[in-house]
Each structure stands twice: as C-alpha cells, then as structure tokens.
Amino acid sequence: MKTFSGDALTRQKWLPIAIANAVFSVLLAFASPAFLSLANFQSMLVQSAVTAIMAVGMTFIIITAGIDISMGAILFFSSALFAQLMIDTQSYLLAFAAALCCATLLGGINGLLVVRFRMSPLITTLATYSIYRGMAIHMTGAQNIPVPREMGFLGNGRVFGVPVPILILLVIVVAGVYVLNHTRLGVYARAMGSSTRSARESNLPTAPVTIMVYAIGGFVTGVAALILLARVGGLQSGIGIGIEFTVIAAVILGGTKLTGGSGTVIGSVFGAFFLVLIENGLNLMNASPYIYDIVRGTVLLAAVMVDRLSVRRQQKALLAVKAARFDQPQSVGSTT
Amino acid sequence: MIKALSESVQTRPVAPVLIALFIGFSLFSPYFLTTGNMEALLTANSVVLIASVGMTLVFLLGGIDLSISTVISVSAVVSGLVMAGTGSIWWGAMAAMSVGLSVGLVNGLLIGLLGLTPFITTMATQLIARGVAFVLSKGIAVQGTPYGMLDFGFLTFHGIPAVTLTALLVVAVCMLLLTLTDWGRHVMLIGSNRNAARYSGINVRWVEVSVYSVSGLLGGIAGFISIATLGNAIPGVGDTLLLIIIGAVVLGGTTMEGGEGSIGRTVLGVGLLAVLISGLNLLGIPFYDQLIIQGLLIFLGTWLAMKLSARRH
Amino acid sequence: MLQDKAHPLLSVRNLTKSFSGKLVVAGISFDLYPGQVIGLVGENGAGKSTSKNMLCGLLEPTDGQILVNGQTVESNEGHAHGISAVHQELSLFGSLTVAENMCIGALPGSRLRVDWQQMQCIAREQLNFLGMDIDPDAAVFSLGAGQQQIVEIGKALLHADKVLILDEPTTSLTALEREKLFRILDKLKERGMAIIFISHFLEEIYRVCDSYIVLRDGHQVAGGALAGVSRRKLEALMVGRALEESADHGDVSDTGTEALRVEHLDSADCRDISFAVRHGEVVGIAGLMGAGRTEMAEALFGLRPSTGSVHVQGALLTERSVAAMKALDVCYLPEDRRNNGLFLNRPVRENLSAAAISRFIRRRLLKLGFAGERLATQTFSRAMGISIPHIDVKVDALSGGNQQKVLLGRWLASEPKVLILDEPTKGVDIGAKFDIHNRIGEIARAGAAIVVISSDLPELLQVSHRILVMRKGRIVGEFRRDQFDSVKIISLAASTGEEGLAT
Fold this sequence. Notes:
The complex is a heterotrimer. By secondary structure, chain B is mostly helical. Chain B is 78% helix and 1% strand. A two-stranded antiparallel sheet of chain B has the order 1-2. The longest helix of chain B is centred in the N-terminal third of the chain and has 27 residues, at 35-61. The mean pLDDT of chain B is 91. By secondary structure, chain C is an alpha/beta fold. Helix content of chain C is 32%, strand content 24%.
C-alpha cells in the first residue's frame, strides 16, 4: 500500500547512512566478537539517544533551511530549571512540566526572532545561545546540582527489558516521522525549505511554520535534557557545550541538506547512531578519546564530499539530457 | 561638522557606544583606567583581535569560518611542541603559521574548488583541528615554553603590550590588503555578488581559496600569540572564543551576507566587547550575566546594522 | 465573440497599471465567455505579464475593474474567484512530490492528518484528465521541463474552475508535449473553462485561440474574433510603429577585418552556432525568449560548458573564460543585471572599475592603492551620462537606466575590441535607451565589433548592420541591412517548423 508521501524520496535519503551503519557494524563485528551482542547495541542506542532525539528536532529546522545553534544552551537551561525546581519544590510533575514547557518556549522564541527580525538564523540563535546559557547559570548560581536518585530511571531504567532512553527515542522518532510526513506542518516545512519564492506565491503560512519548527526543536531538546540529566546524575556546568555541532553533524550525515527542502527523521537518527558507532569502534581499538573529534570531522567531510560529487554527476547528466533534444527531429510534420 | 559627525555616528554606531562605555566605566571604577587594567585588557584581547580579522575577511566574502577557533588551539599546541623541542621562538612562529595556513588552505580548496558549504566544511575542520590539538598535547597544556616567549608576553612599549602591537600590525597589513589591492577589492565584490564577479572575469575560486587560507593563517598567528599571553600552549584555548569572535565581527557591523563591512569596524567591535567584559568584571557582574549582555548586544548590534544599511539604500 | 453562452465569466474594464508614474498597461477591456480562449499577443514589454498578474491577483490594478460572473471584484485574490495562472517561471517545490505540489494550496484531510490517499486520488484524477502518465509520488525535480509544466497546470486547475491563464506555456516543451497540451486545452474548453493564452508563437495562437487581443506599449490596439485575421496582419499589429531608419547609421564597409569567429558552438542550450563579426560592425541577434541566445553568449565566455571553436582576431582560443576573453579585449554585458551584473551594495566607483581595476587606474606605489580610480570613474561616468550626486553612491539607489549605464561603462572602461551586449536596454527608459544606442554606434565606428542580443526588434533594426535569427538553440536565418523586414524576422523567430530559411 502506497500511502506514504514522498515514499521514494524518503527511502533514498536515509539509505546511504543506513548502509554505512550496517557496513561499519559488520566491520566492527569482525574486529571484536563482543560487539555483536544485544547488550552492546542497546548500550550504543542509549548512548546515542540524547543526540538522536535532538537531531529529530534539528531535522525539522534544517528542512526549512534554518539552523539552531542555541540547542546546547536550551539543553542546559532546561536541565538547570529541572534540577533547581526539584531542589526548591520537590515536585516531579512541576519540574518536568516546567522543563519541557520552557525548552519549547525558548525554541519558539528563536523562531519568533527569526521571523520577526529577519536576521540570519545562525546569528539569531548564536545570540540566544549566549543569552539562554547566561540565564541558566544565573538561575542556578553556577552550582552543580544533583538530581534525586530515582531520576536515574529515565537514564538507566528498563521497561519490559528495554532501556527507557530507547523507548523515549522511539516515541520521539515515531512522532517526528508522523509530523514530518503526515501533517500539514511537515508538508509546509519541506515546501518552505524547497523554495521560498514558491512558498510565497502559494501563500503558505511561513511565519507560524517557522515558529513551530523551532519550538519542536526546543521541545525535543527539553526531553533530551531530562535523559541526559538522569544519566549524568545531576547538573554540571559543561552540559550541552558544543552538542549542537554534533547534532548538526548527525543530521547532515543522515542525508539532510543545509539548504533545506528535504531530509528525513530516520536518516538523522541513523546519523546520530553512526557517530556512536565510530566511537565504539575507536574504543575497541583502544584509541585515545581525543581522536574521536578527528574521525568525526573526517567522516562528516567525507559525507558531504561524496554528496557533492554525486550532485555534480547528476547536473552533468541533466545537461546531457537537455542537449540530446537537438538530436531529436525538430517537429512532427509542418504546421503550415 | 555636526552633519558629518551625525553621519559617522549613523554608519558607525559602535564608536560612540564604545566611547560612552569607556567613560562610564572610568567613572564607576577607579581601577578601570589604570595602566595595569589597560595592559591586561589589551593583552587578553590580542588573540581575539587577530582571529576576528580573519573572520571578517571570510564574512566579507559571504562565507563563514567556524574552524578559526580550534585552528588557534591546534597551531598553539604545535607551536608549543616545536618550541619545547627546539627552544626557538622563530621555529615556533613558523610552525604555528604553517599549521594555520594548511587548515585554511584545506578549507579554501574544499569550499572554493569543490563547492562545499562553508558552514559544514569549516565545522568538520573545526572538529578535526580540535582533535589534533588534544591528541598532540594529550589534553594538557604543553610544557617547556621558552623564556623568551614569556618575556614577549610581558613586553610593553610605552604601556602598549608587544602582543597587542603584533595584533595591530596584523590588522594594519590586512587593512592594507583589503583596501589597497586588487585582491581586497575582489573579496568585497565577490561578497557583494558572486555571480557578477564571475561575469566580470574575477577569478572567484582563487580568491575564495586565498581568503580561507588567510583566515587560517591568522588563526595560526593568533594561536602563537596565545602562548605568549597565557604562558603555555593550551589545547582548549580556542573552544570558547568562537562566540566572541563572531560576536565582535557582527557587532562591528560586518554582515554575514558579504560585501558590507570593514576591518576597522571589527576592531571597534572587538574593542567594544573587550571594554564591556573588562568593565563588567570590575563592576562585579558575574560572567553569566555578562553572557546575557553579550548575547543581547550581538542581537541588537546585528539588527541595528541591518536597519542602518537598509535605510542608507 | 462566441454567442452561445450569454454571460461572460470574466469582464475586464479599462484595466490600468502604472509603476511609479510610468504607464505599463493602459486601459485594456474585454469579455471572456465560458469555453472561449483569448490569445494575448504583443512584443516583449507590451504589458502582457503585468495584465496577467493583475488578473490572477498578484498585482493591484491602478485603475479599472475586474468582474467575475458580472460582479465587481473588490480585492482580487485569484483563487477565491476561480482564476488561476501558470506563470512562465514555475512556482513548484522541487523536493516535494507531484501530488503534494498539486494540492499544497488546499491539502486534503485535517491539519494533523493529511489524507494521502485522497491527495493521490486528486492528483491521479487530475493527471488522468490531463492525459499524463506521471507518478503522483515522483519528486518534481526528477521530472522533465515538460512534465513540470503539466504539473503546474494541474495545480492551477485545482484552484481555477472558471478562468485559466497560461503565460508562454510551451517554451520548454517538445513538439509532442506541446500537442498534448493543446489537446488538454481543447478538453478544458469543452468543459466550459475560459482560457487566456499568452504566447509569442502565432501558430499556437491560431491553433488554440478563437479570439485575440493585441497589446502594444501597454495599449490594447486590436481585438476580436481570430477567424479571418491573417497572420501578417497580426504581426503588423504587434510591431505597429513604422520603422525609423536611423540616418546616422551608415553601412559598414565590407572591408573591416574579422574580429570574432565562432564555429560549431554546441552546448546544452544551443547547437551548431557559427557566425563571424567584423571590426566596426554591429550584429544583432533576434529570437524569442528561450531561443538560447543568452545561453549561447554565456557558452562563448566559458560560463557554461560547451564545445566548438572561437577565434578572436584570427587566433584560436585555447581556454574559454571571462578572464581569457577580457585579456583579448572581448567583453560580455550580461542580461540579468541584478543577479549577474551589478554589485548592488557597492558604490558606483567600484562597479565601474570592477572588470579592469588593474589597468584602468594608476598605482600610487608598488602595486598598492587605486590612486586614479576616483578621477577616472568620475570622468567616465560623466562621459557615459550617468546622473549621480557623487561617485560613491551605492548602485542600488540608481534608476534602471543609470544602472545599465554603469554596467555598460564597466566594460567600455576597458576599451573592448569585441563587445557582446545582452539586452542592453531592458528595463531602461527612453532617454537612457537613446544614449545607449548612440554609444553603441560610437564604439562601432571607433572600430569595435559588437553583437547585440535583444528581444526588442525595433532596437535591433535600428542599431545593427546585420541580424541573425535564433530559434530553439539554432541560428535559422540572417538578414543584411537592406533586407531588414520586421515581419519576416518575427515570423522566422516565432515559427515552429522548418520553413524556408531567409538568407
């Protein structure tokens, strides 16, 4: 049954990164038999959960040709808010609600600023990055705050034998896929990134859609913050620094282009998983953790280079097709 | 006279703000205007100044160089190691500059020749440069900085630190290149309209490669200077600088869209951020509140620059 | 007009549009009945696109009325009144599917659940009706130009139940696809849809339309039933004004040496282009939009990949690039001023010196500084008749005519021996146009070889010694000055088949 919009498209986009994941897994399995255990895969999925969840949101933003540099700051902000509220009120409900609402709000503010002031999303979110982070540290007074022990459930607990972060990731991914592929918002987001001019001529609601995608980015960052907090055991000053770049890398690896218009949630999740896979491989080789960055950067470069070369090939083929019409007969019969 | 003044205020809103801040802080804190504080301010911001000039060139071209921050780190580390090994400052300087230049060249080739997006490309090289810096230094400050280098860090001429003079020299050379050579003109024109530059017979690719190379080179020089100002080559030195560098450039009024702005404006932008941070520190404002103020400034500064440029058209 | 349907679907009364005081459409009026197809014809710049944009609601008319079903439309929103247009530049989303593109204006299902099945049904039904075998799930960018055009028409039809406006719908279509489109239009006619058909190809007008309107310089100069109106008459109506042979434009002697020779130039958009231009000669290249003229010039300068040989002053060019051409004093003035020509946020001074900064000015010391630039550009801008308060004004602030003079000045500054001008007076007012024509004559007399690409035929007739006609990527005819005949040239450029070539 073909009810999936853009089925052919979506399949193509995440296929390369899925294959890369598979090939790399096989290689690692050869290198170390311990690699191919369910437990190891579960642990890798848990490791990738935070980035993957954020990557789902970033995919929406990048699909509209935007970007959010402030995600790490939002992550820190909602972590801080949660930890602080737990200390102050001891109410899980309040803390959870506040952290998620605030994260959504901060994301939404990014979108609002981009729409209202028409500045480049990069500079806008760079500014809010600084502001959000400053506000968060202001709130906590630059303290490290532990979270209650039960919070660990979110990070390390299991339901029916499945680690909780994986379950949450699953829910977010399913929701993300649904929203991107089955709601008007998703169609509009892809349309806007595809052509601003056509979006204008077709009278699409660009402003609300922009605000919504940034808000979605904020919301999933809030969710990721809670998992991270649970896994780390408390608020630390370094939380979220530089994570936006890892998230962007995951999205790009997943086949989404910075120029917008197309991309898949699944691809980004695979991208995030691939980054963990690399780490795992390096771990097996007892490589220094400092090498991770080098490998990550190289992989990213390789991915965009391959993509660029294939685009060039496509363009050449297109020109050839265009030129070929000269070799066809000019017209069918004389019209006069 | 008044008209000219008001016009220059309109095109360069940063200058009066900078002066006002300067006067304000001097009044509020007796320590602000002391030689010690001024020297510290100048020394601390020399690295940012040099790197910001590199970022300005890239912005003028219509690109972005995210790698410049960790180029500072990696060239500092390499330079530190070379100096520790050879004991020669000159070899250290050469090493820093070659490392910076090579990363810049790679950026330039990938962006200019292969046509990759500047954002992703420099994000990737940023990661790689950072990784190399940490691997080579094993994550800790490089020991064995020659005494000459430390002396260089403390050296002053008439109250102006030698490192600042070096930075100003770099600024001057880049200004010269940008305003007085064909190359500089071509940078501005490409940033203004890349297609039109191509149709005018400007060698767009070469200029792109060279601008990213220069940006890398400046990152290398900044890395070298950082050893003098900090006493050691520190692998994480660049990590926190990216925000300040981009902030200083956009605050000065050079836009990311290209073809509009100048190195002079960036110097003002760096000055503004430097004075602001120093003053806020003296007033006892905690660093996190400074972050908020910086963010607001970057936002308002960019918005204002955009408004002004739109009105002048 | 058709008499069988009594009430017009769409009536237009005295529709007028002016941009900053300049009249672009001056009071057109017509009635459109169900099942009727009106052909809107006229030369480039006659006001066809502006009329179209007013009818489909993209532009607010300055004056006049639009009535749908006899009721005055206050603020025209196109879709809301069943009017939809297919623009020359398609408004599709490349990375979306065919079905999504067609339905994006009114996605079926709810906000939270787009009904893909229904969307597919709608798209498939529409495609079936249009007789196209396109997968609704295919991404639009993967389709050919012709299929994209059909998708756009399908999209427009979803919103238009009354009036469909087609603006040059066939420029990118093959003969087969065109015939298909015409059959679709026939079907729509049977359904009682009214169509406004804008085209340069008069054969198409005769094939599709039953009445016509001729626009010239924004005025409606003729209209009525098409039957019985000869093609010659229509062409004459379009061209209108008597041709003013310029007296000062003496014939060039045939003795000038050859400055530029192009042989068998092939690229994706042009095929087997061969021609030569002598010193002192102005060669015009006529043709319709999309005939491949700009693409040919760009291929010549290495701005597009191409094969073939180019000789400058008898020497074969080994490398094709703007810089290499510039070194040989061969210059190209691009058609698209804003995107490919001007540095809008840079001053006039830098725009003038952009192409030749190193030889245009003298150095202060070493190789630094642009000592003579200000003076040289000032002198030059005065010579070009560019009216600006001072030389550091940003180009953005200038009028179209002055912008064009700046661009022209950039290339004249390097004293070219061969100059290719692409639409040199597009969007330029009469005064500036006159100046530019004079300028072209002057530099030609000074010994430069000039190629003028223009869609403005009177302009070509005025400035050129010889006119080449391009159609669908090939040169199909050549006229010497004593053979100039605007009607012949237009009919050659706009014919679809291979009629006898003029020589």
